[in-house]
């Protein structure tokens, strides 16, 4: 058998398992180092535990001809879930996800990211656990326009502060970062003592240097106390 060349030259459905609406590219051999071209009408992409290094603005936007099979840019319209857990992604171009108008779930966990790209507006769940994110790598408005976001996972990073969290978020994991302080406005509103945050029911801040007991007014609007150190 002749040696296998660059896996990016092979049709995706020879390297991966393609089922109706789903593409599974997990632990691909030979190593997958870039985002594969996707069949038309792909709803779910699982590309976990590969060697993908970078996600570009072209990865979910171009029409690609691969061994007489056309992979269309219309794919981006149908994608609802993408899972890149366990790669070595260190860079994502800002426009990489701009055409993913239906994307609801995105996992970038267990990679090497130091900053976040612009995220799709309809995300419900975003997971960036186990990266190298610092506060300066998350823009002030990174999550501000995500008005459907319910689950946000940023644990096991290097964050020094809690980023802006939309009111829609129900689950927030920030454990094992470098967060050392909070403010009244972190979760609540300093100018509205009657404000009750309506959705958030699980916050983890354990494994950070912050002593939550020093910031009681930071939780006055919450329906349950965060998990963390209080003394």
From TrEMBL:
It is found in: Secreted, Extracellular space, Extracellular matrix. GO terms for biological process: articular cartilage development; bone development. InterPro entries: Leu-rich_rpt (IPR001611), Leu-rich_rpt_typical-subtyp (IPR003591), LRR_dom_sf (IPR032675), Mimecan/Epiphycan/Opticin (IPR043547). GO terms for cellular component: extracellular matrix; extracellular space. Transmembrane segments: none annotated. Keywords: Disulfide bond, Extracellular matrix, Glycoprotein, Growth factor, Leucine-rich repeat, Proteoglycan, Repeat, Secreted, Signal. GO terms for molecular function: growth factor activity. It comes from the Eukaryota. Its main location: secreted. Belongs to the small leucine-rich proteoglycan (SLRP) family. SLRP class III subfamily. Induces bone formation in conjunction with TGF-beta-1 or TGF-beta-2. This is Mimecan. It comes from Labeo rohita.
């Amino acid at each position: 058998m002749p040696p296998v060349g660059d896996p990016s030259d092979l049709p995706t459905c020879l390297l991966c398992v393609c089922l109706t609406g789903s593409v599974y590219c997990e632990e691909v051999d030979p190593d997958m180092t870039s985002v594969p071209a996707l069949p038309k009408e792909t709803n779910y992409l699982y590309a976990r535990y590969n060697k993908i290094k970078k996600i570009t603005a072209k990865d979910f936007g171009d029409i690609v001809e691969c061994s007489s099979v056309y992979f269309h840019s219309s794919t981006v319209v149908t994608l609802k879930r993408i899972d890149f857990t366990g790669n070595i992604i260190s860079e994502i171009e800002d426009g990489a996800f701009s055409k993913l108008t239906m994307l609801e779930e995105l996992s970038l966990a267990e990679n090497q990211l130091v900053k976040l790209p612009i995220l799709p507006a309809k995300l419900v769940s975003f997971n960036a656990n186990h990266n190298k994110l610092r506060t300066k790598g998350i823009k002030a408005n990174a999550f501000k326009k995500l008005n459907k976001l319910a689950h946000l996972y940023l644990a096991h990073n290097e964050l020094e502060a809690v980023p802006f969290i939309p009111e829609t978020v129900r689950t927030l994991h920030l454990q094992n970062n470098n967060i050392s302080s909070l403010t009244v406005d972190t979760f609540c509103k300093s100018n509205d003592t009657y404000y009750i945050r309506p959705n958030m029911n699980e916050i983890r801040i354990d494994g950070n240097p912050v002593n939550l007991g020093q910031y009681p007014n930071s939780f006055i609007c919450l329906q349950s106390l965060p998990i963390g150190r209080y003394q």
